[in-house]
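U., I forgot to send this yesterday:
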Amino acid sequence: MTAFAIEVATEAEVRATALAKRMREFNYPVVGTYPEVQTVWLNAKNAAGHFLGGFRGEIFLDWLIVYILFVEEPHRRKGIGSRLLAEGEAHARRKGARHARLDTFDWQAPDFYPRHGYRELLKIPDYYAGRALHLMAKDL
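Result:
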């Protein structure tokens, strides 16, 4: 066996993206070349420009991956989250996404997403401190 060491990657090594490039090149024979990750970053603001909520996601291999959908507490249940999600999905569709996926904890919004067409694929009970994590997806 060849001798080797495992080390924590430096910030410069991570920023250089060499690992991601190697992984893409490894994948190309199976999936063909594919575009770089495309971001979907949206904010909701009131007329005075104050932040009400936001959406952060990425498109990769025809999938919108929703990382964050957040609305400030005083502005919840006013349709802002629904509008952010719909706009994020529409933006992703225009960029070529055909599906969406996300995860949400049981104290966050597991009941919100099915109302918007998401289906639960997997529930991991006791993911953290006795709380469940829900993995969801939908076709766009």
